[in-house]
Amino acid sequence: MRRLLVLVGVLASLNGVAAERISLEEAIQQALRANADIAVARLEVQRADARVREAIGTALPSIGISANYVRNLQLPVFFLPDFRNPGSGQLSPVRIGSENSFQVQLQATQVLFSQAVLTGIGAAQIYAQAARSQYRAVVARTVTEVRKAFYAALLARERVEAVRASLARAERLAQDTRVLASEGLVADYDALRAQVQLEQLRAALAQAEMAYTAARSQLALLMGRTQQEPFEPDGTLEVEYRSEPIPAEEELWRQALERNFELQTLRLQQQVQQAIARIYRAESYPLLLGFGNYVYQGQSPTFSNFLTARSAAVGVQLQLSLFQGLQTNARVEQATVEAQKVQQQESKLQEALKLQLRLLRESLRVAQEQIAAGQSTVQAAERGYEIARTRYAAGLGALLELFDADAALRQARTTYVQALYDWLAARADLEYLTGSVDQRYLERL
Questions:
Q1: Which 8-state DSSP code applies to residue 86?
Q2: Which among 327, 333, 319 is positioned nearest to 276, based on CA atoms?
Q3: How many angstroms separate the CA atoms of 277 and 338, rounded?
Q4: Which of 406, 402, 395 is nearest to 186 (CA)?
């Protein structure tokens, strides 16, 4: 019996644990830490930085050391002419070297001039900028998706509350009609009809709660939370909403051209392809190298008493490619075509941006009008319901009028919160397209 009481107490305590309340800022921060796309983009930035260091390294000196040991099982032979009788045409074998020999060589090479190296460093730096631009685009897109998912969860909860309030009114009405019917003041049909309405609202509440659960699951997925970690979005759509003038279309288009993350990335990618074409073209330019070496060597018929010698040299080397089977022209053409492809993508994106900005601006305008009329509509619907309820209680109105008034109140509330969500979602998309996402998030790298 005691164990049963303990188990009941544990279950009761678990049921009493309140879900963690997560603000929009906390949701964004969790998503930025857990999002896999951001992690991949961050790794790409690290790889781009490594490429910059690699490109710079090609302009730095190259220093190496080599050593070898040789055991001659038979000494090498050179054939020399018979110096005592040069006209005989006879050759005499001469053995050279010793059974044991070693050599240690220190070599250094320095690029003195290479257009390909200089161009490669610039291309790598542009590539690093493109990687950072892509990272900012991924971060901004994640922030926008989390904001919209958070607003969608608040909207789903508002719909639950609207249905729940309607259900509470239906429960009171069903109880009142049962009392009135038992006293013969209203027909039994009214009590039956009120009970049917009550059951329909219970089913509607179950559907609304399911939609709210799905909205929270989508938000949890973006935040990197498991489904076993309960939480509630903290706040309301009314608190998140702030009335502000809608920017002119020309101003939005100017901002998008200057700051849109995807446009910036495409422009940098185009510059990368153009730089690659210059690198291929520079491969046919002269290459001037400076070199130096230091050699220490020795020979001995035994492992002792080595005869040693040292030598050192410095010089310059000029390389010039005269013909590579038209490979250079083909590579330059490929890189140029890639740059043209990126340019076409940029033009296509600009056309899409124009349409999206126009549609979002119209969405903001419509949502603002609905929000402005929404509060008064909800208040009017509340007064209408109270009038219908009073009329029905006094026997002057029909039950159907009360049902209609309740449906109108529920619809007015739903329409109002939907307008709030539409405005907030359109505003989030607009800030992403115009590159106006909070810089705090973009500077996390």
A1: G
A2: 333
A3: 10
A4: 395
* Token pair 């209680």: residue: 393
Predicted model pTM = 0.78
Tokens read off for 118: 């200089």
From first to last of its 445 residues, what are the pLDDT tens digits of the chain?
334 333 333 333 334 456 788 899 999 999 988 888 888 988 999 999 998 988 888 888 899 999 999 998 888 887 877 777 767 777 777 878 788 999 999 999 998 888 888 888 888 998 899 999 999 999 999 999 999 999 999 999 999 999 898 888 888 878 877 877 776 776 677 778 878 888 888 898 999 999 999 999 999 998 888 777 788 898 888 888 888 888 898 999 999 999 899 999 999 999 888 888 888 888 788 888 899 999 999 998 887 788 899 999 999 988 887 776 678 788 888 888 989 999 999 999 999 999 999 999 999 999 998 998 888 888 898 898 888 888 877 777 777 888 888 888 888 998 999 999 999 999 999 999 998 888 888 776 5
**What is the identity of the amino acid at 161?**
E
Token look-up 């890639």 returns 338
The pairing of beta strand 77-81 with beta strand 231-233: unpaired
The set of residues, in sequence order, having a beta carbon less than 8 Å from that of 200 and lying 6+ positions away, is none
